[in-house]
Design a protein that fits this description.
mainly alpha, elongated
């Protein structure tokens, strides 16, 4: 689970660094999915 958390954090940082000028629907869906998974990973880390 820790590896997954680090991967999600890394992917989010890539999204933050590389701003997409004209995002399409798939970019928006992927961003929302990453936010949801990152929040879930953080929540599960709190309960350990």
């Amino acid at each position: 689970m820790e590896i997954r958390f680090h991967c999600l954090t890394y992917l989010q940082s890539l999204k933050e660094i590389h701003e997409i000028d004209f995002p399409d629907e798939s970019d928006e869906l992927e961003t929302e999915k990453i936010r949801h998974e990152k929040a879930a990973a953080m929540t599960s880390q709190e309960f350990k």
